[in-house]
Amino acid sequence: MIPFNIPALVDKEKIYMKQALSDGRISGDGPFTKKCSEWIEMKTGTEKVLLTTSCTHALEMAALLADIKEGDEVIMPSYTFVSTANAFVLRGANIVFIDIRPDTMNMDETLIENAITSKTKAIVPVHYAGVGCEMKTIMDIARNHDLLVIEDAAQSVMATYEDKALGTFGHFGCYSFHATKNYSMGEGGAILIGDESYLERAEIIREKGTDRSKFLRGQVDKYSWIDIGSSYLPSDLNAALLYAQLEAADEINASRLDRWHQYYSCLNHLQEGERIKLPYIPKECKHNAHMFYIKVKNLEERNSLAIYLKEKDVSAVFHYVPLHSSLAGRRYGRFEGKDRHTTKESECLLRLPMYFGLSEKEVDYVVACIEAYYENS
After folding, report:
1. To which H or E segment does residue 305 belong?
2. Angle at alpha carbon of residue 249, lines to 248 and 255, rounded to 5°
3. DSSP helix/strand/coil, 231
């Protein structure tokens, strides 16, 4: 079986985790947490990065920092993971879903202004598959309407738009280090703080609403309850696991990109024959090979191909069910405008195996299975 995903592992995870254990610093904000934060800051040019227990929690922190309140509206694509919406619904916001671009599967930036009302507080771009949204346009719209931008960059570590790291355009950026992502700490994430004025409150919210961070730096002689918050600190054991992979990030990224380009090159003849569509990467974007997907004719063909590949020991999977079509999506949000592409494109998309360590031979086999399917259909 060629699985859809295998979490990335390099040589040093056990060494670093044993080091964390031997140092006795396994709770939050230990030495490895600091190393990971500094690595992300250096790599992205962000002023401050705080590791979190998940990207979900990074988004929840962003919603708190953005002071989202009951009745506020937040604009985002419907084609995203539930956490993108949940973070704001938890604060009482109403979600305004807009359609996606069929080329990148990202939010259609030309539809944002029509969705803005007097209640709009924030725009949440989601960089699907590590391919950047049209951030120049989105940031211009946000400035013109005095809105916050919170980037769901869960899939986007090591990806850029116009040579600037995804997650660093908005007021906040949110990364994921889940086991399905390019770099993993099992469960984990990070919030990137793009505006220094939010940093002090971010530290307080992350430390259960206390000023404990100041206490640990010797800035106050005791810490106390200052604000609302929760426990968003990952264990330093998780950070030790992650740091080993961040040290090898260039190697992991290059390997994934090699397999991504191999898929594209080998399957391009099926695209030219109009049997499938392959991912589109705008010229201003550098992606990180987070996933490789194909788009087929319709839902029936997608399901048929997935079953065929499973019979050939290849695990290929679809992705999000659009949020606006879900029970909670209808309760907590609305779709602005027409759903021209979101549902249709989501039903055509099939993700192929993609992970660090996937071999050339395995990609060749997956491609051969897809070719055989279309030869016989």
Report:
1. helix 299-311
2. 95
3. strand
Q: Are 20 and 36 in contact (CB under 8 A)?
A: no
Q: Tell me: pLDDT of 217 over 90.
A: no
62 lies in the same domain as 83: yes
CB atoms under 10 Å from CB of 177, counted, come to 30
300 with 212, same domain: the answer is no
pLDDT at 141 over 90: yes
**Looking at the domain assignment, is residue 256 inside a domain?**
yes
3-state secondary structure 258-283: HHHHHHHHHHHHHHHCCCCECCCCCC
- Specify if 53 maps to a domain: yes
Q: Which domain holds residue 154?
A: 13-247
At which of 212, 247, 282 does a domain end? 247
Give the relative orientation of helices 13-23 and 236-247 as an angle to the nearest 10 degrees: 150
**Cβ contacts of 200 within 8 Å, gap of 6 or more:** none
| pLDDT at residue number 116 | 98
In this structure, are 153 and 279 located in the same domain? Answer: no
**Cα–Cα distance between 228 and 109 in angstroms, integer?**
33
CATH code (residue 87): 3.40.640.10
Q: Are residues 108 and 45 in the same domain?
A: yes
What lies within 8 Å, CB to CB, of 16 at 6+ separation is: 32, 240, 241, 243, 244
- The total of structural domains in the chain comes to 2
Token output for 292: 């490789």
Q: How confident is the model at residue 221 (pLDDT cuts 50, 70, 90)?
A: confident
Same domain, 143 and 67: yes
- DSSP character at residue 353: P
3-state helix, strand, coil in the chain (%, to 5): 40, 15, 40
Using one digit for the tens of pLDDT, what is the confidence trace for 306-354?
999 999 999 999 999 999 999 999 999 999 999 999 999 999 999 999 9
Q: Supply the Cα-derived Rg of the chain in whole angstroms.
A: 21
User: How confident is the model over 152-207, as pLDDT tens digits?
Assistant: 999 999 999 999 999 999 999 999 999 999 999 999 999 999 898 999 999 999 99
State the CB neighbour count (10 A cutoff) for residue 216.
Answer: 12
Tell me the per-residue pLDDT of 76-107, one tens digit each, with 9 for 90 and over.
Answer: 999 999 999 999 999 999 999 999 999 999 99
